[in-house]
Amino acid sequence: MEKNNAIAALVALAHESRLDIFRLLMQAGPKGLPAGKISERLGLPATTLSFHLNQLKHADLVTFRRDGRSLIYSAAYPVMNALLAYLTENCCKGDAAACCVTEADTTCQTERVP
User: Which residues form the HTH arsR-type domain (predicted)?
Assistant: First the structure.
């Protein structure tokens, strides 16, 4: 992932509503969710949701497909994985395992900052 793409993705995710939308789509899996269901679950008006989905699409974090009259949105897993890889590629001088990137990592030898 290029630096500019990483910045665009991070900017898009920096808004609370867009982060909520993206997390919901990540939970939904590859099947995705119709826009109406996203709006319903998050309590966002259709116009507000449309604006935020466009921002996420612009950052390539979500994709959509038409199913009849509905638009089905899905998280772009390859882009999210590329963003995570970009953020951790130089972690701990290239030794990502030493960075303790998950809370469940019991092999972590460094202290966590509360």
Answer: 1-95
Kindly report whether the global pTM for this prediction surpasses the value 0.90.
no
Fold of the 3-99 domain? Arc Repressor Mutant, subunit A (1.10.10)
Question: What are the tens digits of pLDDT across the range 44-60?
Answer: 999 999 999 999 999 99
Query: Is the separation of the CB atoms in 99 and 88 below 8 Å?
Result: yes
Cα(45)–Cα(82) distance, integer angstroms: 31
HSE-CB of 10 using CA atoms within 13 angstroms: 12
